[in-house]
C-alpha cells in the first residue's frame, strides 16, 4: 500500500511556480463529461488556517533550508518509480514530503470536517471521539482534525469568555479526540513531532513582548488531543489485528489512499473492505476522499475495462451480502453523502515558505448499519 498522496501520476505531474509566501490559486476546475464540479468556498477563519500552517513550521523548523528542493526531487523520483519503501525510508524524506504536501491537504481536510460536522454529531463529551486514519501517517488528517477540534472548543466557549480548557468545567465539557494513523511506512517520528507542535506553545524570540508571550499558547491542550501511529499494511492485516484497531472507532478515514490500494490489488482491497466492515460498530462512519473520478480508475483483466473507484467502493459496501438468508438482509452500509468532484480553494493572505495548492477531490461518506 502506498502512503496517501504517493501516486506515481501525482509525483510526475506535480509542478509549481516559485512564489514567496503566497498560495497557488491558478488551478482551473475542469469538467469531465457531464460531471458536476462543486466549488467549496472556505468557511474557516483565516487565523485558524494560518495556525495550522504554523504547526508544520514549528514541527520541522530545520526542513525549510536549501537542501529541501533536492530532497523533494529524490522523493518525487522514487514515487514516480513506485518505489514507496525507498521514498519513505528515511526521516529526511518523510519530513520533506510532509512540509511540501501535507499543509495544503490539512487545510482542505479541515474544510471537509467542518462541512460534515452535522453528520458527526453527537461528538460525545463524556468520552473521546475516536478517529482512525488509514494511510494517514503524513499528518494532514491529524492537523486537519486538530483544527476541527479547535473550532469545537471555541464553539463551546461562551461568548465573551476567555478560552480556558484547563478549567474544571471546561475540562469536563470540552470534546476530546483520540486519533490513530495506520500506514505502511514508519511515520511515528512525524506524528510525534506534529503532536508536540499542536499541544505546546510555539517558540518565541527572546525579544518578544510581554503581550506576545502572554498570548502565546498551544493550539490544543494535551488532554484534549492524543495521537498514535502504527506501521501496518492494511491489505495484509488479519481480521483480528484490524478489528483491534477499528472496533471502537467513531470515524475511519481513507484519504487519497483507496485508489492506490485498488491499483495495488483489486482482490486484496475488496477483502480489506470486507474485514473493515466486520470490524466497525453500528453507527461508525467511513470517509473516503480521493482524486476525482476521471483520475481514479482501475483496470480489470488487462486493459479491457476500467471502473471508477467510487463504483467499486459502492459495489463492495452497498451490495446485499452473498450469505444473506432473506431479502430482509440488506446492505451493511448506507451512503450518507457523495460528490464526484469538489474543489477546495485556498483563501488570500496565508503565509508559508512553500507553494500551497488548491485541492480537487471526490468525497464519499458511509454509515455502518446494524
From TrEMBL:
Pfam families: Methyltransf_34. Residues 1-38 are annotated as: Disordered. It comes from the Eukaryota. Residues 1-11 have a biased composition (Low complexity). Residues 24-37 have a biased composition (Basic and acidic residues). This is 25S rRNA (Uridine(2843)-N(3))-methyltransferase.
Amino acid at each position: 500500500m502506498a502512503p496517501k498522496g504517493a501516486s506515481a501520476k501525482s509525483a510526475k505531474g506535480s509542478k509549481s511556480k516559485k512564489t514567496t509566501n503566497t498560495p497557488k490559486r491558478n488551478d482551473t476546475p475542469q469538467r469531465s463529461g457531464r460531471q458536476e464540479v462543486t466549488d467549496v468556498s472556505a468557511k474557516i477563519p483565516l487565523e485558524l488556517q494560518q495556525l495550522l500552517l504554523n504547526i508544520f513550521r514549528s514541527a520541522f523548523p530545520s526542513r525549510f533550508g536549501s537542501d529541501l528542493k533536492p530532497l523533494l526531487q529524490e522523493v518525487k523520483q522514487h514515487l514516480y518509480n513506485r518505489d514507496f519503501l525507498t521514498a519513505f525510508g528515511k526521516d529526511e524524506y518523510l519530513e520533506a514530503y510532509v512540509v511540501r504536501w501535507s499543509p495544503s491537504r490539512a487545510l482542505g481536510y479541515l474544510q471537509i470536517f467542518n462541512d460534515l460536522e452535522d453528520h458527526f454529531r453527537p461528538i460525545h463529551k463524556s468520552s473521546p471521539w475516536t478517529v482512525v486514519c488509514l494511510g494517514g501517517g503524513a499528518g494532514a488528517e491529524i492537523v486537519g482534525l486538530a483544527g476541527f477540534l479547535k473550532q469545537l472548543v471555541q464553539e463551546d466557549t461562551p461568548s465573551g469568555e476567555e478560552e480556558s480548557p484547563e478549567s474544571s468545567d471546561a475540562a469536563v465539557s470540552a470534546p476530546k479526540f483520540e486519533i490513530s494513523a495506520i500506514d505502511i511506512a514508519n511515520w511515528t517520528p512525524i506524528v510525534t513531532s506534529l503532536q508536540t507542535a499542536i499541544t505546546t506553545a510555539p517558540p518565541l524570540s527572546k525579544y518578544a513582548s510581554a503581550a506576545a508571550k502572554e498570548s502565546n499558547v498551544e493550539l490544543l491542550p494535551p488532554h484534549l488531543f492524543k495521537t498514535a501511529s502504527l506501521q501496518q499494511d492494511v491489505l495484509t492485516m488479519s481480521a483480528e489485528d484490524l478489528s483491534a484497531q477499528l472496533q471502537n472507532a467513531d470515524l475511519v478515514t481513507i484519504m487519497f489512499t483507496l485508489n492506490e490500494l485498488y491499483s495495488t490489488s483489486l482482490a486484496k482491497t475488496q477483502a480489506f473492505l470486507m474485514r473493515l466492515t466486520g470490524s466497525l460498530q453500528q453507527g461508525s462512519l467511513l470517509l473516503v476522499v480521493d482524486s476525482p473520478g476521471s483520475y481514479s480508475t482501475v483496470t480489470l483483466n488487462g486493459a479491457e475495462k476500467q471502473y471508477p473507484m467510487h463504483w467499486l467502493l459502492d459495489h463492495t459496501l452497498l451490495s446485499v451480502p452473498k450469505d444473506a438468508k432473506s431479502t430482509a438482509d440488506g446492505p451493511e452500509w448506507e451512503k450518507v453523502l457523495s460528490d464526484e468532484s469538489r474543489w477546495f480553494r485556498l483563501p488570500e493572505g496565508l503565509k508559508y515558505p512553500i507553494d500551497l495548492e488548491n485541492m480537487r477531490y471526490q468525497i464519499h461518506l458511509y454509515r455502518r448499519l446494524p
